[in-house]
Specification:
Helix content is about 35%, strand content about 20%. Strand 4 and strand 5 (about 155) form a beta hairpin. Helix 4 packs across helix 5. It contains seven helices and eight strands, in the order H-H-H-H-H-E-H-E-E-E-E-H-E-E-E. The longest helix is centred in the middle third of the chain and has 17 residues, at about 70-85. It is elongated and about 55 Å long. The chain has two domains: about 1-85, Orthogonal Bundle (SP0561-like), CATH 1.10.3910; about 95-199, HesB-like domain (Hypothetical Protein Aq_1857, Chain: A, Sandwich), CATH 2.60.300. It is an alpha/beta fold and about 200 residues long.
Amino acid sequence: MAETQQVAKAQDSAINPPENKITKDMTIGDVVKTYPHLAEILLSHGVHCVGCGARYFETLEMGFKGHGMSDEQVDTVVQELNAAIKDNPSDGTIVTLTEKAAGKLKEILAKENKTDYALRVKVIKGGCAGYSYGLNVDKDVNPDDTVIEAFGVRLVVDAESIPLVKGAKIDYVDALQNAGFRISNPNASKSCGCGQSFH
């Protein structure tokens, strides 16, 4: 019995060496929140997509196996994630806010007496191009949220939205018509003319 346990521990160490920061029993949400730049790898393997079977509270193993992967394939992707961390510990970029957009947000928050609130950035399934952006001020920060500080204001992004907005830039446009916040998103293969919907 003790010998069987030692063999099992040795096998587990081979799969999840101590130096690995990512293990297959970590939740998808924790991985994306801690290492946002890994979202691209997860997406390339069909995991953590909004609207599919994978959810941020599932473990990597559950998410991968839900997409038909074998134990060996799961281990291979976990190693790929760990290699990506070593190559790029954190690129620090999830969503950026221009100074102009931050100034407008400060103005709005001050006018509404909500200076301690954050701008919540959310991706919602639907809209004329497949997904739409939700931007609203929010006082609450949930456990799966990532908080980004820029120019004296805060942005909050939920775990499920991060892969779809990673690298996006939020600006504010002054115009006679359709003035407001605009999102430039490198993940969008197609955007609608309204500027609030993408695919």
